[in-house]
Amino acid sequence: MPKVLTERRERTWIVAINRPEVRNCVDGETAQGLFEAVEAFKDDDSLDVMILTGSGDRAFCSGADLKNVGSLNAREGAGKSGPMGISRITDVGKPVIAAVNGYCTAGGLELACWCDFRIGSSDAQFGVLNRRWGVPLVDGGTQRLPRIVGLANALYLIVTGAQIDAQTAQRMGLVQEIVPPGKALDRAIEVAETLSTYPQPAMRADRRAALASFTLGIEDGLRFEVEAHRESMSDPAMAKWLERFAAGERPQPIRPPH
Question: Domain total for the chain?
Answer without folding.
Answer: 2
